[in-house]
Amino acid sequence: MRSLRTVRVMVLVTAAPLLLAAAGWMHPRHLTPRTADHWAQLHVVLLPVFPLLVLGLVVPLWGRPRRDGEGALTVLSWAGCLCFAAYYSGLDAVAGISAGVVVDNGVHGAAGRLFVTGDELGRIGVYGLAVASLASCAVLWRRHGVRVLPGAALLFVACWSFVDSHIFWPRGVFTMLGFAVAFALLSAAAHRSAEGAREPGRPTKP
């Protein structure tokens, strides 16, 4: 039963980044009249996927705060996740769907401005994700100690790369794979710590 729960958690936290990595591998390198329809349709499909990236931060924090200060950090993490979901969806809609549609309809001059606006929205979203990552890792550090460090380190590298890589091949794809591995490591660390605290004869943390 415990192993099944672990598998479910791993699928939950890694599904979105793995889907985004696959989408990045299929993503056109450049927006042209030939690729415009594929560009737009791919971003329509991805519109509900990008916000799910935050599950990798939300799931390991699930449950009531255990110590003083965790509540504020958890709220900060949620706020950063909300910022990412809202603003990065804006990038997807503007530089993905809208830019693809206008180029597909022969309105090439508008695409440049749409990219500029989309990049601004995406940057704000990734900064929100970075804040959420920092707050989440602070909570997980307080709960589980040094075992969260590998996942946290990889998470911050992925956030740094995500600022300008989007999901484009090759760096964007590896960035998404980095998120998947980081989320899996953080979730595994939280799970091992929780299992250890429930071992018979071992005192649980207050």
From TrEMBL:
Keywords noted in UniProt: Membrane, Transmembrane, Transmembrane helix
Coiled-coil region list: none
Keyword Glycosyltransferase (UniProt): no
Membrane-spanning parts: 7-27, 39-59, 71-88, 124-141, 148-167, 173-190
Transmembrane found in the keyword field: yes
Protein name (Swiss-Prot/TrEMBL): Integral membrane protein
Native organism: Streptomyces coerulescens
